[in-house]
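Protein data:
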Amino acid sequence: MSVHDHGTPAATLPPAEDLFLHAAGQRLAATRVYAPDGAAPDVVHLHGFGTTASRHAVRYLLDDLAAHGHSSLTFEYSGNGESTGELERATLRQRRNESLAAARLLDEDRRPVLVGTSMGAHLAAWTVPDLRPRALALFCPAAYPDSEADVRFGQERAKPGPYADSPAFAGIRAFDGDLLIVAAEHDQVVPGSVIDAYFSHAVQARSRRLIRLGCDHFIHRWLPAQAEQRREVLGALRALVTGSLR
């Protein structure tokens, strides 16, 4: 096992295990973050688009969940971080398949919790029919049209928007668990209409909660240093993960 430094004293960090998972010929770097009882993860994080996207950016969220009894998995898509592959050749559909491969490492006895950031939120919602999550936590969630599924990232691509045919909205319409959305008031990537669309399509959700923060799109760079807002979000995420077990 190896533990990474994410701004928390080493003595207080939960145990973490680095590993690789395999999907369609690619080797994806991953980390399991363990609760004290060593339980299998039932939470997975799906990161967003960008050359600097990393599985470690949300450790402040996952370490807190571990301290409160919930193990998790975070990984890097092909073309990012320590994973193999080329970012320019990746597609949304490929990343969806990699998300499903990662989910196979979760606790089979519990419906999972999917935590998605930006593009990862689109992917989390898209996988709802397959994974049947008990809860979704979406940070600055993007949405893309159905026509983008097989467009390579190195090509010209559609910007995030409230596309009626988005696979994310089709997935969220089928979602029957608890929904938390954390949005940025100054998001320069995802229009506010996308947040509204996620909520309007979540017609079967058992509960819905929206937190708006005074930051830009890159929420995980900003939030860890904001004591009050961080407490609010960590508390909301803990309540979501624990409460959705009811």
